[in-house]
Structure formats: structure tokens, C-alpha cells
From TrEMBL:
It comes from the Bacteria. Gene3D superfamilies: Uracil-DNA glycosylase-like domain. Residues 111-130 are annotated as: Disordered. It holds the Pfam family UDG. One of its GO terms (biological process) is DNA repair. Coiled coil: none annotated. This is Uracil-dna glycosylase-like. SUPFAM superfamilies: Uracil-DNA glycosylase-like. InterPro entries: UDG_Type-4/5 (IPR051536), Uracil-DNA_glycosylase-like (IPR005122), Uracil-DNA_glycosylase-like_sf (IPR036895).
Length: 342
């Protein structure tokens, strides 16, 4: 039997209630009210510990999404079964949703702190597992749970504002940077400063834009410094390791055909490579994250520090390779960019 980490009593009340009361019922407001009533009865009887399984947690997460919709005055989504045709939520339904939501939010908050390990050794890296049975739920839980994920909080070395990914969550091409800087944190978007302008120029030359790719950072929080203002630092190894665990979830959700690692830090984290490997060690090699090909190139900020056309051409050749791996068209004109004139 699979060993599970201990859960708080409230999680177990909810799961037991689902299994005892709601098995075989359609997921409607009346059934949810029965769940709430049963929870209260169990609590009054002093029940503290009941079984939990993955199936029940998935149902509860589905309920949480639906409860949010009802609380906002939206009709039920098509993914949740209802009696008859979907109708505008009544005041009673909204009240039930609000009550259930309070319970489920506490369940999800506990889930955020229960990191599962790849390996039960002392050096294992906690895996970020937001859960969810659909991509919509997984994205919602990803954004909701990451800012309070216990392993990340316990580092005490990152700032509090998350900078989430941007763009098409079904993009064939994914770009990964290292960590947010001051400008990214202020704008709450990746690559918001001068390096971002360089990246926008590269994308334009590729015939792309931010809304046609998926752009994210290895570490989603700006690395902190004492008395920090606009100064920045690169993420350390612990931050990169946890960031890579979070990035894995994004990659699973986006499912790109190719990934571009922007800079050596992003490459080391994405590929779990040695911390002293230079960028040159990654170039010219067939690299993969799982079965997804990876292209490693310079961070766009490198273009702010060099005017060497040879280096710019190398970066551009990396982008051409990424386009081909992603199945994007490449014109002859694009192939000639940054070539020596004459």
C-alpha cells in the first residue's frame, strides 16, 4: 500500500463525508449541503481522523472550483454535473458554495504544505504538486498554492511577490529565464526591463510575440538581499532546485514542442546540471527535458553588454534551431539575419 503523509483531521472529515454521503449522487448544491451538515455532525461527535484517498481529493478540488463560480454569481461550469439544465445560481446555492468554500480552502492550504518527495533521502528535493483533475483546475491551484508552498517559504531567501509565466499556455515554444529582477517584480511579469525589450526584438524577428509563446522564469520569486532596492542577485542552488520542481509542473501543463533556456542559470536548473558548467558546455549537444528538446542560449541581457555580430549570430542560430524543433516555419530571409555582409 502506498505510504501517504499524515493529513489534518478536517481533510479526513471531508473525504469521509464524500464517500459516505455523496457516493453515487450527482454533484449538486443539495449534495454539497449534505456534506457540510455531515461534517458538522462528525465534528460535534468528536471525530478527528478518517481515511483519505486521491479520488476524493480530486472531487473536492472540482467542488472548490465550482464553489468559486457560484460565489461570484456565475452559472455552473460544464464540467460539473447538475440536475437538469444549467441555471443562474440562487441565493441559497451561493450560500452553500460559500460555506463549502471555507472548508475546501483550508483543505487546499494544508495541501500546499505537504510536499511529496522524489526520494526519501536527506537530500531529496520536495516536489510541488498542486493537484487538480483538469488543466483549468491545475493552473488555478498552481497560482493559488505556490505563494504559500512551505518548502519555498522555509528558504527565507526569496521575496514575497510571485512573477508567474505569461503567454499562450498551449504554445509550441517555451522560454525559460532565471529569476525575476526589480522591474519584473514591479510589473509582475517576466522580462519587463531592458532585457525584456531585447527579447521582444528577438521574438519579432522570429515572427512571434509574447502572446504566441509561453515565457516564464526558473524561480518565480525575486531573490532577496539585505536592504534591497533595485539591486538583484542570481538564485542560489537551493532556490534553483525548488524552482525546477515548480517549472516541471508548468512544462507538464503547457506541453511545448521545444524549450529555450535563456542563460546558463536557467539551463542548469532546467536540466539539473552541475552548478559550475559554463554556457558553452551546453551548446551543440542534443539536450532534453523528459522527451522535450531543449536549446540553451544567452540571456537577452547579454545583448546589452556586447555588440559582437558573431555572438549575435550564434544566439540567432539557437533561435532558428528552436523554431525548427517547435515546428515553426523559418524563411530564407530569417536564415540570413546577422550574417557577415559582403
Amino acid at each position: 500500500m502506498e505510504k501517504r503523509s499524515p493529513r489534518l483531521g478536517k481533510v479526513k472529515w471531508v473525504v469521509d463525508c464524500f464517500r459516505e454521503v455523496c457516493y453515487g449522487l450527482r454533484v449538486i448544491a443539495d449534495a454539497r449541503q449534505l456534506v457540510i451538515d455531515r461534517l458538522r455532525a462528525l465534528q460535534e461527535q468528536g471525530t478527528a481522523m478518517l481515511p483519505v484517498d486521491e479520488e476524493a481529493r480530486l472531487v473536492l478540488r472540482r467542488w472548490m472550483v465550482e464553489a468559486k463560480r457560484l460565489k461570484m454569481g456565475l452559472p455552473p461550469s460544464a464540467q460539473v454535473e447538475v440536475a437538469g439544465n444549467a441555471a443562474e445560481p440562487s441565493g441559497e446555492q451561493a450560500a452553500v458554495a460559500s460555506s463549502l468554500l471555507r472548508v475546501l480552502e483550508e483543505v487546499e492550504q494544508e495541501e500546499a504544505g505537504n510536499a511529496e518527495l522524489d526520494d526519501p533521502t536527506a537530500h531529496a528535493v520536495p516536489r510541488f504538486r498542486p493537484g487538480g483533475s483538469t488543466d483549468e483546475e491545475r493552473w488555478m491551484l498552481f497560482r493559488r498554492l505556490l505563494p504559500r508552498w512551505t518548502p519555498m517559504l522555509n528558504l527565507g531567501s526569496l521575496r514575497e511577490i510571485p512573477v508567474f509565466g505569461q503567454g499562450d499556455v498551449r504554445a509550441s515554444l517555451m522560454f525559460v529565464g532565471d529569476a525575476p529582477n526589480y522591474f519584473d517584480e514591479q510589473a509582475k511579469m517576466p522580462f519587463a526591463g531592458e532585457a525584456g525589450k531585447k527579447l521582444d526584438g528577438i521574438l519579432a524577428a522570429m515572427g512571434l510575440a509574447r502572446d504566441s509563446i509561453y515565457l516564464t522564469e526558473l524561480v518565480k520569486f525575486r531573490p532577496a538581499l539585505p536592504r534591497q532596492t533595485t539591486n538583484n542577485r542570481p538564485p542560489n542552488e537551493k532556490e534553483m532546485a525548488l524552482g525546477a520542481s515548480v517549472l516541471d509542473v508548468e512544462i507538464e501543463l503547457v506541453r511545448p514542442r521545444a524549450i529555450v533556456a535563456l542563460g546558463v542559470i536557467a539551463a542548469r536548473g532546467l536540466l539539473r546540471a552541475e552548478s559550475d558548467l559554463p554556457l558553452s558546455a551546453f551548446r551543440g549537444l542534443p539536450l532534453f527535458h523528459g522527451d522535450i528538446p531543449v536549446v540553451v542560449t544567452h540571456h537577452p541581457s547579454y545583448l546589452l553588454r556586447t555588440s559582437d555580430m558573431g555572438e549575435r549570430r550564434k544566439l540567432w542560430e539557437d533561435m532558428l534551431q528552436a523554431m525548427e524543433l517547435a515546428g515553426l516555419p523559418v524563411s530564407e530571409k530569417q536564415r540570413s539575419f546577422f550574417l557577415p555582409k559582403g
